[in-house]
Amino acid sequence: MIAVATGSDAFLGATASALPRRLASAGSLWVLAVAVYGVGDLASTLVGLQLGATESNPIPAALIELSPGFLAVVVVLSLWKAATMAAFALVAWRLPSPYAAAVPAGLCLIGVTVVGWNASVILSVAS
């Protein structure tokens, strides 16, 4: 079914009644949060570490120092990222429904910021 979008939501390609349902669906926000905050940050951190950059977050930095090799660093950072994502999911689960979507949305913003920061560090280390 094709609908003509009217009003201020026309630029989003959705009808005015469909937009709140899309925004209320936090599932896609969690997928994006895992992709950007989880995978994007982890991957860009690992690339940076391979190029000689250092981790600025004190807890993962300490875990990296304790890890005997790069494979151990990958495992430890993956477990750290999974634990933080689980903690954020627990916070979201405890929040009332309209506010729970703020958690993955915030993780998306943090993830984009951190991946951008990591990219700038990678570019400065690589050059």
TrEMBL record:
Membrane-spanning segments: 28-49, 70-93, 99-126
Pfam family, one: DUF5658
Segments forming domain DUF5658: 32-123
Keyword Transmembrane set for record: yes
InterPro entries according to UniProt: DUF5658
Transmembrane keyword on record: yes
Domain of life of the organism encoding this protein: Archaea
Keywords in alphabetical order: Membrane, Transmembrane, Transmembrane helix
Protein name as it appears in the record: DUF5658 domain-containing protein
Source organism per UniProt: Natronoarchaeum philippinense
